[in-house]
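Comment thread on ticket #2218

A.B. wrote:
> Attaching the input chain for the structure job we discussed in standup.
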Amino acid sequence: MNNERKMNLLNLEYSELEKFILDSGMKKFNAKQIYTWLHQKTTRKLEDMTNISKKDRLFLYENAYIPYLEVLEHQVSKIDRTEKYLFQLQDKLTIETVLIKHKDRFTVCVSTQIGCPVKCAFCATGLGGFKRNLEVNEIINQVYTINSRLIKKGKSVTNIVYMGMGEPLLNLDNVLKSVDILSNPEGLNISKRKIVISTSGIIPGIEKLMEKKLPLALAISLHAPTNAKRDQLVPINKKYPIEDLFNILNEHQKMNKRRITFEYVMLKDFNTSNADADILADLLRGIDHTLNLIPLNPVEGVDLKRPTRDKIAHFYKYLKIEKGINVTLRREKGTDIDGACGQLRERKK
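C.D. wrote:
> Ran it. Output below, let me know if you need it in another format.
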C-alpha cells in the first residue's frame, strides 16, 4: 500500500489521532503513547514505538505513515551564526526555513506556503509565484527537524515565528492546527505566548484569531504609512486598507492584551521622510506597539534600494526622540545566506 492511501499521522491533532486509534480497535491510552512518540520524541519510524504492541505497530505500518522533510541544503551565516535550511517536500517542491540564535533563545522562522500570493514589492518569496499552502505536517516538521539537530547540542527550540515564506493568515486552518500541536504539553510544549504570527493585514484572518482567543503575538507587515504608498508595496492593502486594518487591530488588542509589532521596511526616497514619520506616529498613537525598522535587504530581481546609513539613523531618531514611538532598528541576521527578512524563496543554488 502506498502512502497516498495511508493516514498521515503528523496531520492529526490529538483528538483526530485518538479517533483514528479508537476506530482501528486500539486502546484510548495508545493515542497518548503514539502522540508522544510523534511530537515529543519526534520519531520518524513506526518500529521505534516500542511500548506499542507488535500487532498494533503492524496495523500502523499498513495503514499510516510518518512523513519527513529532506534537507537539500544547510547554510550557516558567517556574520551571526543564523542558519537556513532548504527543505524538499514529498511532491519535490521546496521551502526555506531559518533558525535565529540569541543568547538564551532559539527561534525558528517557519514557512506556511510555497511562494506567496501577496507579492509584496520588496520580497523574494512572491517573485516565483504561489504554488500551494503547506500541510500541517510540513509546517511542524520544519520545527522538528531543526529541534532534533539542536537537541544533539544540548539546546532546543524556544520560540516560533510564522514569518517565513507565505502569508500565514491565508493558510490559517493549518497554521492554527500546527500551533495546537507545537504547544501541546504532550509534544514540544512551546508556550503560545512564545509564538508570533505575522500578516500583511488579512482582516478576516485577524477576526478569526480573535474568535479563537489565543494568546499569540501578532506582527503586522506595514511598510508604509499611507494607502497610496502601501498600495504600491503591499497590494493586499487595496482590499484591506490601513484605516480598516487599524480598526481591527485596536479591537484585537483590547481582547488579546498583547503588544503588536509593526514591521517597516525602509526604502530609499520612498517611506523615510519626516512627513512619513509624522503620519506613522499618528497611526501608532493609542496602540501598544513596537515599530521594527528593517533596512531593505538585497533581493535579486528587485530594483528598490535601501536608504543611506545617515537617513536610516535620522528616521529612527526622529521617530524615537521627536515622536515618542517605541521603535527598534533591526539588527540584520543571515543576510550573507539570503536568510533575512524578504529574502526567502523556493530555490536551490
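A.B. wrote:
> Thanks. Noting for the ticket: The first strand starts at residue 7 and ends at 8.
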